[in-house]
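hey can u check if this looks right to u? its 68 residues, i copy pasted from the old doc so theres a chance i mangled smth
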Amino acid sequence: MLRDTLSKVGDDPAEEMAAIARSYAAAMAIGVQVRTLFQAGYKGGPDYLIAAFARGSFIGLPMLQYGG
């Protein structure tokens, strides 16, 4: 996607979903726990994201695939 070329983050939901998936993949690669990644400061709280990834529902993965 374009995130690495942007100087400020926009409000495009697709970019947000891709960033979530990218963050999750990076955290898993370096051993950061999901609860640490998606902490209480995240919009609406972390519980939904933590549960979704635990179920294997990888939010944002299609956006990463689409972006190459």
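The mean pLDDT is 83.
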